[in-house]
Amino acid sequence: MSEGTLVANVDSDPFLAFVPTAEQGTTRATVVTPSVGQNHHYLSLVAWTEARGELTVDGAAPTGDWVEVPGTPYSSLTVRVDAGSHQVAGSRPFTSM
Question: How does DSSP assign 52-78, residue by residue?
Answer without folding.
Answer: GGG-EETTBPPPS--EE-TTSSEEEEE
